[in-house]
Write a structure and sequence with these properties.
Blueprint lengths: L3 H4 L9 H24 L6 H13 L4 E2 H7 L7 H10 L3 E5 L7 E5 L1 H22 L4 H18 L30
Antiparallel strand pairs: 1-3, 2-3
Amino acid sequence: MADLKHEIAQERPFSSLEEEALLNLMRTADCINRAFHLQIRTWGVTSTQYNVLRILRGAHPAALTCSDIGSRMIATDPDITRLLGRLKALKLIRQNRDRHDRRVVWTRISEAGLDLLTQMDPVVQRLPKEMLGNFSEDELTELIRLLELGRRFNLEEAANCSAKVMPGGQLPGHRTPNCDGKKA
């Protein structure tokens, strides 16, 4: 089994055990993301678009605002408005403005979006077993515990992974168009 230093052809030692662990985590996440994307690309959606459709199916039949969707995403997308626009162009979602506050846009999954997810389900549901099936139950439990611990304590201040997403789906400090297409 190759270690990270050899995989990335790094000659110098890592500056710390923490650096090696962090880079291993980032490399592994990238490998898993690429493998997932390769499996779903035949349906013409990205893993981020799939994530949004999954979120909307979970809320179905209710609709969600851009900020609600953004706060539930696995990997945040600073331009959720454009992402939703692409899904709308593919007719996988429907959007409508709030009757009382025209600045608010409600998004729900369409029948075409539900049908697409139904087609994807068998492949997507077998992927976790294929990707992580070499771990024992105890190892998976420990991995989950360690990852949650890392998010809770190490990243809370720096990245605030569970930060509330602002209207329009952007993170605090980002200036991207909101769901109305205007700069926030």
